[in-house]
Amino acid sequence: MVLCVIAATTFWVLNALNKDNYVTVVNYPISFQYNNSEYMAVEELPKEIKIEINGNGWDLFRKYFNVNVPPFVIELSNPDKQKYLLSSAYRRNLAEILEPTNLTSILTDTLKFNIDKLIEKEISIALDTGKMKLAPYHKFASDIVVSPSTIRAKGPESKIETLGETILIEIANDDIRENFDQTIPVLIPEELQQYLTFSPKNIQVKFEVVAFLEGNKRLKIEQINFPKNVKLGRDITSVLMNYRVDERRVNELRDVELKGVLNYNHRNKEDSTVTIEILNAPKYIESIEVEPNTFKLKYE
């Protein structure tokens, strides 16, 4: 009984497929043809269109299930100049490749695509110093040299423009305390990697680093512009200056004579105090702190 039912069903299906004038809706495969050396798609292109066709059952069966069905090729001569294609533009060509099946209607009225022209652009390279971490009390001792200072980026025009005029590169090293000379890759943003190429892919970064060492020095106090009736509130002749000095200039600092100056003309009249000043301090010392640094004035 079962075999009879199967056989009858099979004969009925085969007989039905041999008949004409069936109508069905299928998703027909398509592909776009354009000059890949000059253009690139920046969004996924449509892969099929929905059409209504009529014809022999076998032909409709084959097209419905995409059995040995070649895609319909749509040629684009200047794809960057248009963003869509109306069905009227390719209806005749599509009808020809569907024969002997008849094209009844194209249900996908508009094909949208986004294809850009490929360009090359020279982009500057700079080091993002804001994200660099030098070791505590270390500073740059030279200019930062980036070589080469520019790269060439190639890709779709709209994607190239998102890069701007300058690409900032980062150094992953933390706590840098020595002179730096390394090759750094110029990374393409993840969302652009499938579209862009850089040439060269690596650049050389060089710069010098200097440490500022802690030190202290006792300074004599010099009073200037003091009236005869004004004295310091305490009897003191020297102060201790704490500082940090460029490690390359330590020996040089030893020969420098510094003085702590108390200038009466620079006093604070509200609380009758005067603050010590270090005159002619060399530029290679910093973080200067003086103990004590403020003195009370005593009037007689």
Helix content: 10-25%
Kindly provide the radius of gyration, computed on alpha-carbon positions and rounded to a whole number of angstroms: 41 Å
SSE order: HEEEHEEHEEEEEEHEEEEEEEHEEEEE
Distance between the termini: 133 Å
Average pLDDT number: 86
From the helix content, strand content and strand pairing, which structural class follows? mainly beta
| Domain tally | 3
Report the β-strand fraction as a percent range: 35-45%
Total beta-strand segments: 23
Shape: rod-shaped
The biggest beta sheet is recorded as: 6 strands, mixed
How many helical elements?
5
Question: Runs with pLDDT <50, length 5+?
Answer: 5-19
Account of the 3D structure:
The chain has 300 residues and is mainly β. It folds into three domains: 18-113; 118-207, YbbR-like domain (RNA Polymerase Alpha Subunit, Chain A, domain 2, Beta Complex), CATH 2.170.120.40; 211-299, Beta Complex (RNA Polymerase Alpha Subunit, Chain A, domain 2), CATH 2.170.120.30. The protein is built from five helices and 23 strands. It has helices at 2-17, 57-64, 91-98, 157-161, 250-254; strands at residues 22-33, 39-41, 48-55, 72-75, 84-86, 102-106, 110-112, 115-127, 138-140, 145-147, 150-156, 166-169, 180-185, 197-199, 202-207, 209-224, 230-232, 238-246, 259-263, 273-275, 277-278, 285-291, 294-299. Strands 9, 16, 18, 19, 21 and 22 form a six-stranded mixed β-sheet that branches. Strands 2, 8, 11, 12 and 14 form a five-stranded mixed β-sheet that branches. Strands 4-1-3-6 form a four-stranded mixed β-sheet. The longest helix is centred in the N-terminal third of the chain and has 16 residues, at 2-17. Residues 5-19 have low confidence and may be disordered.
